[in-house]
Amino acid sequence: MGYFEWHQKPGYYADITHHFDPRARVIDVGCGSAWLADEFRNYTGVDSSFEAVQRAQGLGLNVVHADVEKGLPFPDRSFEAAILKDVLEHVADPMAIVREVRRVLMPGGRVFASSPDAQRWVWHDYTHRRPFTRRAYRLLFADAGFQVERVGYESVVPGTGVISGWTRKKRRPLAFRVIAWWPWTRRNVWLLAMTPVSDPDEAKPGSGST
Q1: How far apart are CA 204 and CA 127, in angstroms?
Q2: If pLDDT is split at 50, 70 and 90, which confidence band does 63 have?
Q3: 195 contacts 104 by C-beta, under 8 angstroms
Q4: H helix or E strand, kind and range, residue 197
Q5: Residue 112 near residue 16, CB atoms below 8 Å
Q6: How far apart (Å, rounded) are the C-alpha atoms in residues 179 and 177?
Q7: Domains of the chain
Q8: Cβ contacts of residue 28 below 8 Å, gap of 6+?
Q9: Residue 171 and residue 133: Cα distance in Å, rounded?
């Protein structure tokens, strides 16, 4: 099974999508198979993998090929929401990407991000460069100018996808959410943050504000 087959639509996908209006202009950074396009009317995906982009475009999805580590090919304030699911653990400079996401988000725009917690299992994936802790995730986004709303854990114990198929639930049951806080449980860190409604840089002399 290829790498992108492992990153198809997860069983508990609504743990991500419920944070956003389905009508929002969404950018999906590191979109892979672009499964989030099923959930948003105004969807744009971007990925560094030419193979993944070709597949998504072949399905008629709005996906752009670009090296996300060199910047996002969109104007400032193009989107109302951003999703970075399982992306930042793969890149050399997470701060550069988070700053780019802030640039392309409108004031008051929200971002959801998730990455593996700092545990041994992270290194089973040879494409991972680093794991994260909740504190590191919070600091990463705060230092990039985001207002962090929530930081938590999500359980990714083996078999989660199978159980979601049995229960047919779109969000993780309470038991899974509780288990995620046990330090010996396989889990991801996730974060929800917002861009400031007013950008303090705009108020500086010479910024063009009136």
Answers
A1: 42
A2: very high
A3: no
A4: none
A5: yes
A6: 6
A7: 3-203 (3.40.50.150)
A8: 34, 36, 37, 43, 44, 45, 46, 82, 83, 85
A9: 23
Q: Compute CA distances 209 → 71, 156, 199, 202, whole Å.
A: 26, 47, 11, 6
| Residue written as token pair 């909740």 | 134
Residue 74 CB contacts under 8 Å (≥ 6 apart), including other chains: 27, 44, 104
Give the Å distances, CA to CA, from 136 to 97, 151, 188: 15, 10, 13
Find the mean pLDDT for residues 78-87: 96
**pLDDT tens, residue by residue, 96-105:** 999 999 999 9
Q: What would the two tokens of residue 32 be? A: 């892979």
Distance CA 152, CA 206 (A): 40
Position 170 confidence tier, pLDDT thresholds 50, 70, 90: low
Q: Directed axis angle between helix 94-104 and helix 134-143, to 10°?
A: 50
Say whether pLDDT at 73 is over 90.
yes
